[in-house]
């Protein structure tokens, strides 16, 4: 149709690779050139990590991807250190997202209830832009309330006649993704702006960053790789605001692959941790983590001069 040729489906083939024992996995890595000085240790870690997962961290040490042969002298502990770094990075990122998520819940509940002088702004469809999106969000929230085992939710639903508890209780049940949907669907830009200004950001930046963080959080919570990942959904970068933030971000052409890496996410989280907590401990932990594992930061989209940029000072 439309002058386009139909594509024939590529024929599928049977998967013929046999399952491999942990000891055979170690031998395979050795055959490919990985230096393993402590074989029992390597078997132990492969028994915990899954070879398929471990192999993703071998990629930067391969001299030929087709044959999966390693660069001469590559040690098992180098690959393991990269894996441990990524795990600790996920925990650090989740820590920051948790603190921001709790703060954003507070701001949404406070600002909407204060402006409209009601405990139930979430029950007023006129405050939201897309009514289909609102109905979907409300339906999910109603389901969360019904299924909740939290004592404070049970108390509020049993005692009061409104179909849902007050907003300051309901926000405690929202995931980062749901919170992002509620915020982006607030009808008046002024209402979104008063929330975003509490973080020194404009509402477009905050809306975009919340959507991006929902993806990052889900990947982290499901133990997926953050190091060297290209993110499908990136974030709009602020063009105005705190100079330390603006000067520390990677501002590159949209086509530049480095924008799909995690560096700008970490800058934004570091900035928000300063705003929310008023201290620099989170950023110091990140710097120490990178230095301890001697990570190739280029694969995470870091600029060469990143530590000289003001947000990291």
Backbone shape: globular
The helix/strand class is mainly alpha
Q: Biggest sheet, in brief?
A: 2 strands, antiparallel
Determine the fraction of residues in helical runs and give it as a percent range. 40-55%
Query: Count the helices. How many?
Result: 13
- Give the beta-strand count: 2
The proportion of strand residues reads under 5%
- Rg from C-alpha positions? 24 Å
Q: What would the average pLDDT be, to the nearest integer?
A: 94
**Distance linking N and C termini:** 59 Å
Listing every helix as H and every strand as E from the N terminus to the C terminus, the arrangement reads HHHEEHHHHHHHHHH
Low-pLDDT residue intervals, each spanning 5 or more residues:
none
Provide the spatial order of strands within the biggest beta sheet.
Answer: 1-2
Description:
With 313 residues, the protein is mainly alpha-helical. The protein is built from 13 helices and two strands. A two-stranded antiparallel ribbon has the order 1-2. A hairpin with a 4-residue loop joins β1 and β2 (69-70). It is globular and about 70 Å long. The N and C termini lie far apart (59 Å). The relative contact order is 0.09. The mean pLDDT is 94.
């Amino acid at each position: 149709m439309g002058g386009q040729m139909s594509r024939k489906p590529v024929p599928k083939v049977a998967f013929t690779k046999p399952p491999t024992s942990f000891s055979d996995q170690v031998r395979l890595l050795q055959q490919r050139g990985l230096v393993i000085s402590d074989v029992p240790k390597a078997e132990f870690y492969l028994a915990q990590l899954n070879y398929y997962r471990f192999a993703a961290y071998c990629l930067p040490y391969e001299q030929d991807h087709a044959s999966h042969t390693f660069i001469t002298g590559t040690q098992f502990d180098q690959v393991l250190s990269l894996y441990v770094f990524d795990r600790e990075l996920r925990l650090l990122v989740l820590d920051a997202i948790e603190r921001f998520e709790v703060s954003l819940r507070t701001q949404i509940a406070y600002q909407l209830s204060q402006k409209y002088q009601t405990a139930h702004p979430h029950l007023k469809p006129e405050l939201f832009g897309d009514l289909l999106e609102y109905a979907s969000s409300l339906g999910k929230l109603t389901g969360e309330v019904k299924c909740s085992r939290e004592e404070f939710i049970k108390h509020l639903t049993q005692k009061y006649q409104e179909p849902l508890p007050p907003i300051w209780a309901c926000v405690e049940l929202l995931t980062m993704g749901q919170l992002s949907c509620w915020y982006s669907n607030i009808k008046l830009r002024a209402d979104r702006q008063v929330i975003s200004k509490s973080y020194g950001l404009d509402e477009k930046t905050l809306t975009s960053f919340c959507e991006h963080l929902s993806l990052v959080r889900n990947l982290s919570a499901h133990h997926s790789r953050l190091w060297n990942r290209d993110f499908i959904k990136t974030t709009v970068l602020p063009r105005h605001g705190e100079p330390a933030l603006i000067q520390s971000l990677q501002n590159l052409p949209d086509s530049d692959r480095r924008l799909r890496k995690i560096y700008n996410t970490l800058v934004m989280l570091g900035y928000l941790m300063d705003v929310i907590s008023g201290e620099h401990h989170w950023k110091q932990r990140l710097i120490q983590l990178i230095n301890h594992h001697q990570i190739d930061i280029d694969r995470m989209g870091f600029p060469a001069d990143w530590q000289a940029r003001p947000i990291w000072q």
